[in-house]
Amino acid sequence: MVRDLYMFSRVDNKAEVVWFKIEYENTLHSEAEITSFLADKELDIRFAYLDCSEDPHRGKYVIFTEVDRGRDLEAIVDELKKMNVVLSVDYGISKNRVMQSVEFPLNLLGERAIIVRSQTFVNILEIIHEHTPQAEGLLMLTGIKSGSEMVKYLQDIVDVNKNNCLDLLRELFMAAGWGILECDVDHETLVGSIKVKDSFIAQAYGENEMPVCGYISGFFAGFISAVAGRNVQVHESYCKSMGSEVCEHLVSPAPEDMRIEHVMRGEIS
Asked: Which helix (H) or strand (E) holds 64?
């Protein structure tokens, strides 16, 4: 589910922002009963999300609401806990009015994750370009490793094969906020192109004379190579940072005697 990761409440500066995390028995009416209870208590919900993806029998309802200062929150929590569908309740007050929609520590795709602005990511890329020899090859290698590791994780969850890998790649990019993909790669020959609309790197990078999405090219190469069982090479032919509407990455098989480490010597192009 795509959602804002955090925001500040600006509605009533005199109220307190209170969050509730309610774990409940997952029935057809559980969410409606909890929402009805909150309405009866005149708790004005400013932001909320549901999550039933981890356990089909249990759900999680995270709610941010504005509450008059001094209100007895313990009494509300006690009543919540007594509801038949409710399993547990945690709550807290956000003194700085931040509504955070992820838990700590954040886990993403089976690993500890953090939230980073795209501009911060691009700042790191720019520093690498300025101070590291063969920076583009280094970023390409980093992307290749990330893409191949992603396939290893997915293979524990779903059947990843040459017929569905591009669909999975497209869904992953959109879910992560990296961009919207249009894939035209032949499954057998591994020749084609991947167009990226609203690439998070190109958009944050701004105008540039050269393509800037080498990390994404590497990610595509690592992902497709891991699924196909043979190395492919990917390079960005044009980029939004250069004035194009989208970024285009050309895909083709790598020569049989070529190894991934040749990227650092500029032998994959």
From this structure: strand 58-68
Q: Range of 237's domain?
A: 118-265
The pTM is what?
0.72
pLDDT digits (tens, 9 = 90+) for 40-95: 998 888 888 887 776 778 888 988 888 888 889 999 999 999 999 999 999 988 76
Number of structural domains found in the chain: 2
Residue at token pair 């032998």: 267
Amino acid at 163: N
Within-domain flag for 112:
no
CB atoms within 10 A of CB 223: 27
b/e 225-246 (16+ beta carbons within 10 angstroms → b)? bbbbeebbbbbbebbbbeeeeb
Q: Please, which pLDDT band fits residue 11 given cuts at 50, 70 and 90?
A: low
From edge to edge, which strands make up the β-sheet containing 44-51?
44-51, 58-68, 15-25, 86-94
- β-sheet bridge partners, residue 194: 183, 249
Tracing tokens 């390079």 back to the chain, one arrives at 235
CATH of the domain at 246: 3.30.1380.20
**Backbone phi and psi for residue 34, each to the nearest 5 degrees, phi listed first:** -70, -45
